[in-house]
Amino acid sequence: MRTAVVVGAGLAGLATAGALSRSGWHVVLLERGERVAAPPTALVLWPNGRRALESLDAEGGWSAIACPLPDGGVRRPDGQWLVTPRSGGAGPAPGAVHLEDLYDALMAGLGDLVEIRTGFAVTTIRTGPGLRPVIGDGRTEIEADLVVAADGIDSTLRRTLAPESAAVGSGFAAWQAVIPGYRVPPAGQSAGGETLGAGYRFVSIPLGERAAGQGGVYWVATAAGAPRPESPATQLELLRRWFADWHPPVGELLAATHADELVPQEVRELRPLPRSYAFPSGPGGVVLLGDAAHAMPHHLGQGACLAFEDAATLRALAGEAAPGPALTAALEAYSRLRQPRATTVVRQTRRMSAVVQARGRLALRARDAALNHMRPRILSAPFADWRPPD
User: Fold this and answer.
1) pTM exceeds cut of 0.85
2) Rounded distance, CA 76 to CA 70, Å?
3) Residue ranges per domain, the chain?
């Protein structure tokens, strides 16, 4: 039986493990934590991410967990429109989904050929021309035909195989939270949209009534600078002060947020991207996938969608491949397809980062003048038209 080890049980790892198992692979899914758990936040499934998930598992029930997300437009902190909302548009509408619901759906799709091992922190990998890849945690070693590094931006496997690529700060700090539906203030009931200030950004997204069984509103705030060292309660108070004079419902949503719901994070990215996403070894090899391959600032919300694209591409190319020349050729084809795609998306994301970073009167004027023309191009191309390989 063909064997695979997937390192990392986040969204990318879960999607890949389920896809390979449905193609007949026996998969060992490794998670460094003591359990597989969803972060208490949400994400936007753009059309490319939705197509990738549907190609991985057509019966995943994605329509039942995603709330349609219309374009909410872009405003200044005083409420003036920079980009007015648009109704409809080309292609399917994006959807917002709570991560608890998405994790549940991906876990349900793992199947009987997936063995989950928690508390397994990979520290070593051995590869070679005549050697099946072997990974270990200092106590146990596991050998397989295929190893998938889906272990995030701090990937141990990437640091070994592609040491030229390093995780660096993007110059932003970010905060996320989900306010349950019963606590959403009246002003936030129809929340949805983006607001740009001088180095600050606030995005609010309605999750519908069914999200994680409680509905609610998901919001993300970013600010230029390093991550804050204070407690979540203190950081929440800082956010309330920074955004105090912004248009409704920004202040109301922050006031309704509890400190234990706040998820602070540093915005980081890989620079440069790895020179290859595939590393042949024996009859198979190792591939980089998700944030281990192309972590980027989240300003366009493409991180998870690109990871699902990776998983769909790997499944399409290697799902039926036998260990040996067919599998090694499939892994090399995966790298050839995914590298230019990731490079294009990262380039667009960095363009959006420049928009968010604009500060100073002249820079803000230039940003505001260009945004109405630039934003539709950034958000629609090249994301919406992606299709899984045949």
Assistant:
1) yes
2) 19
3) 3-68+95-168+270-380, 169-267
